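User: Good morning. I'm curious how pyridoxal-5'-phosphate would be positioned relative to this chain. Could you predict the structure with it bound?
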Amino acid sequence: MLSWVEIRAAALEHNIAELRRLVGTQAALGVVVKANAYGHGLLEVARIAARAGVQWFCVNSLEEALRLRRAGYAHPILVMGYVERAALAEVVRHELRPVIYNLETLQGLEREAAKQERVMPVHLKLETGTHRQGIPEPEIPPFLEKLGASSWLRLEGLATHFANIEDTTDHSYALQQMDTFERLAEMIEARWGPVPLRHSACSAAALLFPRTRRHLVRIGIALYGLWPSRETYVSCQDRADAPELRPVLAWKARIAQVKDVPEGAFIGYGCTYRTTRPSRIAVVPVGYHEGYDRGLSGVAHVLVRGRRAPVRGRICMNMCMVDVTDIPSASLEDEVVLLGEQGAERVTVEQLASWCGTIAHEIVARIHPDVPRRIV
Ligand SMILES: *Cc1c(COP(=O)(O)O)cnc(C)c1O
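Assistant: Good morning! Here's the predicted structure, ligand included:
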């Protein structure tokens, strides 16, 4: 295998136990497994999470939900992204929980539920300030009227999502969204009766605000042992209930070639790097197609024989070059760690993210699904 991802089951189980402890018994633990479980492998993560007793799966797309159903998971599955009206029959057939924010979808779903004679649980997404999905306050009544008039749709949940909870240590905007969400939920319940579930908590909200740990939480990034951001990490540090998170994923490859190049030689496309001494260059069979971002060109390092080897020149589509001049024992098919630990050295997701100007989520979510995931 040229390159593979290792998933540490023990770390995932540990994070689930920590999150379970954090949310307590008043909330169902929902795990967000969209984007191939943030790059960790949808079915690999689902298997471990189901065994560890998580109660809900949250996905973006219908396709992700169907993969879980086909693998035999009977859990409630929240579908958070848009489902085309033409595909709503599948939502009903597999009893998925769609998050609804437009009337066309609600109408389509009602038609399908009636046709299949199944009572469908639905969730409404309320606008509280993110202005992405979400029903604005003045547009809420028609949804509730439609639901009230339908014998095939059952309002199971009210949801919202925070705009500014991990990018700052100033949580005033998030607190305002929590207040708005609670006010809207109370208004709905006062007029149309109780709704079983209210859910707003992503990882950062669940970590920081106990009031969001009710009924159901939707935990993504923390499940994988990664902090939502430095700001969230800092904000949590004085809390007695802060969980200890363990990164789950490592990314490895094998050296595909080692070669000597003279002083003054250019390495790779664009001649962006020129050696300043006679050098040994190792070719690593991972490039931006596999998800090793081109922005890492000339700035990242990988680990070889427990030591750092700097990336030289540009990351190519399926390869990159690293400098092993100072690691004389480096040889063909040695293990390379792109992400993770080797000996006393470590490359973290956060480090890769800062090297290429992005967030941890994008680093892991973009590791190509074709790179095999191995449970260790
Ligand atoms: C992705 C997502 C989450 C999970 O967020 P994390 O910060 O990764 O925990 C929760 N809710 C919604 C609506 C999402 O899209």
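Residues 100 and 124 are 5 Å apart (CA to CA). Residues 32, 34, 80, 161, 202-204, 218-222, 228 surround pyridoxal-5'-phosphate (CB under 6 Å).
Let me know if you'd like a different ligand tried.
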